[in-house]
Write a structure and sequence with these properties.
- By secondary structure, this protein is α+β, with helices and mostly antiparallel strands.
- The protein is built from three helices and five strands.
- The chain has a five-stranded antiparallel β-sheet, sandwiched between helices.
- The two termini are 14 Å apart.
Length: 123
């Protein structure tokens, strides 16, 4: 699941919340925060690459198809900054296979708090 998928999910959650239909679950505060971060990083994120060190299902997520995972990564931003971080990201079960230790991905980090990172696309 890439950054564009994250943005699409964020837009769908916002649309569902606005419609407020009887069969529509309202997004949690965590889902809204996640959606806002995805949009911010798409527009202003600091680019770089990351190597996956670990992946663990977090048990969170409002969508039974897209579950939340905590992904331990080593980040190398294009500005030369290197550090370890944990990414909390929604993935489908099929996508989990691509996010295994040793995998390399492009990332974008929040310029205001570089510990907030989102993975998108393999590097």
């Amino acid at each position: 699941m890439g950054l564009m998928d994250n943005i699409k999910k964020a837009q769908e959650m916002a649309q569902q919340a606005a419609q407020g239909g009887a069969n529509t679950a309202n997004p949690s505060a965590g889902d809204v925060e996640y959606a806002n971060l995805a949009m911010k990083l798409n527009q202003n994120g600091l680019p770089g690459n990351a190597t996956i060190n670990s992946i663990t299902e977090s048990g969170e997520g409002s969508d039974p198809v897209n579950k939340a995972y905590d992904i331990g990564i080593s980040v190398e931003l294009e500005n030369g900054q290197s550090y370890d971080a944990t990414v909390h990201q929604y993935l489908t079960q099929d996508a989990v296979n691509a996010y295994q230790p040793g995998g390399k991905f492009q990332v974008k980090a929040d310029p205001d708090d570089t510990s907030k990172v989102m993975l998108f696309g393999q590097a």
